[in-house]
Amino acid sequence: MSNRVAIAGVGMAKFGELWDKNLRDLSLEAGMYAIFDAGVPGSDIDGMVIGNMSAGRFTGQEHLGALAVDQGGLGDIPAYSVEAACASGGAAIRQAYMAIKSGEHDVMLVLGAEKMSDVNQTEAMNTISVASDWEWEGMFGATFPALYAFMARRHMHEYGTTEEHLALPTVKNHANAVHNEFAQFQRAVPIEVVMNSGLLADPLRVLHSSPITDGAAGLVMCREDIVKKYTDTPVYIESSEQRSDTLALHDRKSITTMNAVVTSTKNALKDANLELKDIDVLELHDSFSIGEIILTEDVGIVEKGKGGKALEEGITEIGGKFPVNTSGGLKARGHPVGATGVAQIVELVLQLRGDADKRQVDGAEKGLAVNIGGTGATSIVHIIGR
Amino acid sequence: MAEQGVAQVWRRIKSMYKGVGNRCETCKTYYFPPRPVCPECRRKGKLVDYTFKGLGKIYSFSIVRQAPEDFKRQIPYIVAQVELDEGTRLTAQIVNVDPEDVKIGMRVRACFRKIKEFGQGGIIMYGYKFEPTMKVTGHE
Fold this sequence. Notes:
The structure holds 2 protein chains of 2 kinds.
Chain A: E1 5-12, H1 23-38, E2 47-51, H2 55-58, H3 64-72, E3 79-82, H4 88-101, E4 107-114, H5 121-129, H6 144-159, H7 163-177, H8 191-195, E5 199-201, E6 204-205, E7 215-223, E8 235-244, H9 259-271, E9 281-284, H10 289-298, H11 307-312, H12 329-333, H13 337-353, E10 366-373, E11 378-385
Helix pairs in contact in A: 1-3, 4-13, 7-10
Chain B: H1 6-10, H2 13-18, E1 20-24, E2 30-31, E3 47-51, E4 55-64, E5 77-84, E6 89-94, E7 107-117, E8 124-132, H3 133-137
Antiparallel strand pairs in B: 1-2, 1-3, 4-5, 4-7, 5-6, 7-8
């Protein structure tokens, strides 16, 4: 395999509710860190992609590609902006991956960014809701948390998943985030606190849900044959897969499994010539804790229905067989919608390079990320290796 | 430009007021809302309008405690995925029942209700909600 796509460098802006920073500050910060980390001269970058869900509604600004190259001083290179709801970051990486693989671009900057705190919570919630089928779900009163609540209640009904199970991803991910300096919440949360937090949409509670976050993440990606020019610690994209499903949750045969995740993961592993047991560390899209439970099953860590049990047994903790969301996940690292898919890969790159500090998974060589759009209408899977 | 919500609701009146969806005569699958293309049969599909009976059962549900502005006055309210007798599912509010009495599998029927207002002074959107059949007819 000589025409893989390499990741030369990664960068993050600290996630949080950042009133003193706007979208361009955040994008610039993540992009600059990624470029410095890669050791790439700005003049070598011949294209950039930015993943963003809804800057138009969150901030009033669109045309983010042009904004980012302009502010970054990257000259007149082509700049692309891509949207796939919460999977916009993963989509940006996949666009760059395809552009480099096709030979059109050699070195690209990839950004994911979202500035969510410039609008009030209600407007933020409305904006996130349009990732589902707005005319036939949202407009009838089904908030985004309510749709995940449908999945949670059905999972409890079909498989006996409990309220304790729903709390466990939060507890684990917050514990992991304690050691992630970029995380929005660098603190542990006891299970009682999660289980007694306010109800958002029964059975989902506030602490089952990812927060409103401002943040950006960046990667420098390039052709495999030139990456050694820039860095001694490159990481490679072993495969990139994307699948779609119905926009509305009610159109799916089952709402306790995400078919797009099952298929994209299976294909990504096949393309990379790997089996799940070869994967050392995973980032799974936990916008709600039930999401992590379902994805744990859908990627094949445990069989359908056993996602809650996997958490009980510690399989997905750091030190377990399949560590999931070592970064703190969307719950504790924060979920700036368009940035999340890129932040997942940043975490996996740090893990593979051995740079993940106290949350390091020993000897991690392969990592897998699942980035979801909406309630599973888009699934983007990347497998990376060193 | 149409006043917020006006055209958006008006062009869907048939489905929202009367429960008109469609059915593919090739594969006999029902769709609600109506689909422009049968995803099973694609060009071999033949879609004809179909008015749903409005009877079904609760497939999954939630009680919404935090809602956007247009629904704030209704919280807490019950929203559910209803599996219609024709086999298709839709998303709607459940009314005429206490939140603690809602159960998966409960028989429900469609009723005509005010759904929401588009902001202050905006148009009022009407459409379907569902209520337990037992409450109305006295039997399951």
